[in-house]
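Bumping with the actual sequence this time:
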Amino acid sequence: MPNGKAGEPPARAPGPQGKKEAPEGSGGALKKLADFFSSPDPEKEKRRELKGVARSLRKINSRLYNPKNEQALPGLGKLFFEFYKTLGPAQTLLAHAKSSAGLKAVLIENGLGKEQAALRERLTEQSIRARLDQGQGQSTVEEIKNDLKSFVAIFDVARARQVNEQYKSLAILLSLVHFDYYMLLRKFDPSLREGDYGGNPRFEAINAQYIEDELKDFLEILPSFDPMEDWSGLWQTLKSYRGAEPVAADAWRKLLAAIRRLRRTGELDMTAQLIAGNPYFRATPRVYRDNIVEEYLTKLRAEAETTLQKVAKEKRTQSVESLTRQVFGANQVNRLANYSEEANKQFAKKLSAGYTFVAPLNYLHAFLLDFVKKELAASLDALLIRGKWSDSGMSQMLSASYHELQAIAESLERFDAELAADSELGRKLASIAARADKDRQRAYMARRLMNKVNEQARDLLLRSCQNCITIGKMLKNVVEDVTRGKPQLVLNWSELVTRGQRNLKEMLGAQYKKLYYFVQLLKLYI
């Protein structure tokens, strides 16, 4: 039985030299088989790949990097100096271009046709204001809104995509412009002065790791840079934006040729691979996804709407000022003690709106006291007590509205008194409002109570407005009837005039106007 463990091949007898004889044909076959099944050495493979990269770079451009000494060579500095010399002057001129809404607007509006540009001009704040000043109120507002819709419709999906792609190219160009060439170049020549584009730098070979990060940053820009893009058109856009030539045309053409070569040869990518010691390094291109069209249109809509609101607010303020002068002159109109701006301070902070009809309700209070109970009372006494109407229904309507205003005046006094700090409602409202920001239930109760108070104020205003309109119509009818000649409404008009009311017609006309102005004033609030 052969020696050895079970399953093992029998040992061969040693040869004449005392060595084991190698199996027949093992000289290369077994070694190759072992090599085939053995795991590869990653580091060895990386070194082999790096040697291949170094050979390729040496064939293309041997002046950029020295693999033996791991040095970045002066040739790399000279290459970046060409970029700095060409683009450096534009860095100051285009300092804030990337974030500039003005530049985006120039890019978008440069592509508009003549009619489209005219439509855009009609939507500027100055134009909108002029149109509203010269226009017909709400119809002009609707016209402006329709113009805005028409302008927005110009930018369909295809056009928006085209503009956004142009801005993407522009953003890439600006990234190339604003790369920090100077800090990189100073590592090759510490004596280089910033802004010295015409000098003769003395670049030296340096430890390549000093510029590794800067080179990788630059390579994030270069892959996105398409040499076939219409760069001259984009430079023209930048010229329109700044009003000056950012880059000399001849210098840019030379640099563009250098960029084409770098993209074609990949020599900077190879240099970065060798510096990083990673033959598989690939820079991740920067992503540019700005949707400037949507941003532009959103801003345009907001600006147009804001202008419309501002003009409406300004006109409303002007109308209020004019109407209050017509109705009250220089008289003080803030008469209410509790439903007032001063009292509203504590509620506006807690309940966002607080008292919402302070101004018109104070106008109403002053109007009822100063005009209805004094000026209007005298003329209506003459018309209703001593006057003989051909239509009793009209005089009854006039009388009813007049007495209703007197009743509203009393209701308004009670309403204001109930809001006093020492009254039940006033205490309750103040108590609930004080804790509204800490207790959701109390906040809800406070809002409900405040809404109820404001609804009462609004009801007083609406009822007053309706009765003022009725009285105004009656007075206007009387004045027009008298003006036509023989009065047909107040049959004893001549008697009223001869008994002391000689200026009764003028008085009624002035009172009609004041009622009209007051109604217009209230309509601005309700």
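The tokens above came from a reply further down the thread. The chain has 21 helices and three strands.
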